[in-house]
Design brief:
This protein is of the alpha/beta class. It folds into four domains: 150 residues, Spo0b-associated Gtp-binding Protein, Chain: A (Distorted Sandwich); 183 residues, P-loop containing nucleotide triphosphate hydrolases (Rossmann fold, 3-Layer(aba) Sandwich), CATH 3.40.50.300; 92 residues, GTP-binding protein OBG, C-terminal domain (GMP Synthetase, Chain A, domain 3), CATH 3.30.300; 36 residues. It is built from twelve helices and 18 strands. It has a six-stranded mixed β-sheet with strand order 10-11-9-12-13-14, with helices on both faces.
Length: 502
């Protein structure tokens, strides 16, 4: 049974915006008193909140699909639709949010941080809001847009002051249980610990947290064992405590060789940019299980060699609690020092700025080759949103969309790209809206594609006069008479006769 989850994929769907309302106010002696359709409500956002009371992503593992409330539709008498309720998702402190491609979006490393991960759709305007001096009674309203939908990755990196690292069955979980009130699972077989265990330790006037990272083995940084899955939980710790087993019975193992293997794996693990490498952080060594006589002798034998390397070494026993008091005070000293340094030299806030270009038009056109000619695809936030807001069953709404696109400069850009009347134009990606483009009439000289003095767009609706119809009829009769005369000439020349015809 899963009890701890530190990475999960969320499938999110923010609420859609409500549609605007088409309504006309009716009063006594005034059956058409003006438009009074209200706006649609906005869809609810989905917000991630770092909550100290949440310690696992298990809830999202069991229910990864989350959606917020849709906005209500607008109503008559200028009544706006209700906004969709915002959905808050509490996540543990230390959760890193990434997009579907694995690019980091935000690091929720502090309690109470909030981030809108999925924005709700925009509510559509009612016909009362669309009324102008030239459009006094709009017979259409704008539709609500869809809320954001997609996948995000949540990755939990435990926030602890000290990380306990070492081989499986080195006694790390027992040390957490002995130094704090935590009750981790403890058993005499490798990989008993399947997820990090947190414990709170009070030493003097200092309170700090320790994390028991599942046992590391050689090759853990390359994916062997469980180490790669949980080495991420060491990233945020300010100090490391190497727990070395002095009572192991496995051949070829001793505290010094175990330490070398662990150091190699910690050095091979890449930390995020801007963080201190794991091997450059303060480190202590705890020689565990000295309650066993042979283990005590081994600890006394290897201690000078470890101290020569510059480590501060403690001989401890989680069974008899020997040496734990001195170890807890030493760890508290390291934590206090790290906190003072962090206060004096705070890490700069990570701010991502994406300014828009000064000459940004809000859209661009991509020319794609097709079987029946070029396809002109319009990509941009505004055009794509406007298409979503348009009711294509309403001719007035379609005309309003054409006016908005022309005002944005879409038609001018289409002409520059080589589009002509009848070209296929697509707005948006994927299953987008497809048009057979018919440019609107303008007075711009560079938009005239016909010979000077003519415009082919004006020829389609012109009716023929009676004189033109009579001339066309006479031309048809003359053509038939000429065809009959040609047949008679061929017959007289012997090219065919009546018998061939039969």
């Amino acid at each position: 049974m899963v009890t701890f989850v530190d990475h999960v994929t969320l499938h999110l769907k923010a609420g859609n915006g409500g549609n605007g309302c088409v309504s006309v106010r009716r009063e006594k002696f005034k059956p058409l008193a003006g438009p009074d359709g209200g706006n649609g409500g906005h869809g609810g956002d989905i917000v991630l909140v770092s909550d100290p009371q949440t310690t696992t992503l298990l809830g999202f593992h069991r229910a990864p699909h989350r959606s917020s409330q849709n906005g209500g539709p607008g109503m008559g008498d200028h009544r706006a639709g209700a906004n969709g309720e915002e959905l808050e998702l509490p996540v543990p402190v230390g959760t890193v949010v990434k997009d579907a491609d694995g690019v980091e979006i935000i690091d929720l490393s502090e309690p109470g941080m909030r981030y809108v991960i999925a924005e709700g759709g925009q509510g559509g305007l009612g016909n009362a809001s669309l009324a102008t001096t030239k459009r006094k009674a709009p017979g259409f309203a704008l539709l609500g847009t869809d809320g954001w939908a997609g996948d995000v990755l949540l990755e939990l990196k435990t926030v602890a002051d000290v990380a306990l690292v070492g081989y499986p069955s080195a006694g790390k979980s027992s040390l957490v249980a002995a130094m704090s009130a935590a009750k981790p699972k403890i058993a005499d077989y490798p990989f008993t610990t399947l997820h990090p265990n947190l414990g709170v330790v009070e030493s003097g006037g200092t309170r700090y947290t320790i994390a028991d990272v599942p046992g590391l083995i050689e090759g853990a940084s390359e994916g062997k064992g469980l180490g790669l899955e949980f080495l991420r939980h060491v990233e945020r710790c300010s100090a490391l405590l190497h727990v070395l087993d002095c009572a192991t019975l496995e051949p070829g193992r001793d505290p010094v060789s175990d330490l070398d293997v662990i150091l190699g794996e910690l050095g091979a693990y890449p930390v995020p940019e801007g963080q201190v490498p794991l091997l450059e952080r303060p480190q202590l060594i705890a020689l565990n299980k000295i309650d066993v006589p042979e283990a005590r002798e081994l600890a006394e034998f290897v201690r000078p060699e470890l101290e020569e390397r510059g480590y501060k070494v403690f001989e401890i026993s989680t069974a008899s609690h020997e040496g734990l008091r001195q170890l807890s005070f030493a760890l508290a000293e390291l934590v206090d020092r790290a906190r003072r340094e962090a206060a004096e030299n705070p890490a700069p806030a990570k701010i991502v700025l994406r300014p828009k270009a000064v000459n940004e038009s809000g859209f661009h056109i991509e020319v794609e080759g097709g079987s029946y000619g070029d396809v002109f695809r319009i990509i941009g936030t505004k055009p794509e949103r406007w298409v979503q807001q348009t009711d294509f069953a309403n001719d007035e709404a379609v005309g309003f969309l054409a006016d908005r696109l022309a005002k944005l400069g879409v038609e001018d850009e289409l002409f520059k790209k080589g589009a002509v009347s009848g070209s296929t134009v697509v707005i948006g990606r994927g299953n987008a809206i497809v048009f057979d483009w018919e440019p609107t009439l303008t007075s711009t000289a560079e938009l005239v594609v016909a010979p000077r003095g003519s415009d082919p767009r004006l020829d389609g609706g012109r009716r023929r006069t009676n004189v033109e119809r009579r001339d066309d009829y006479y031309d048809l009769m003359d053509a038939k008479a000429e065809a009959r005369a040609e047949l008679m000439r061929e017959k007289e020349a012997g090219l065919w006769n009546d018998e061939d015809e039969s």
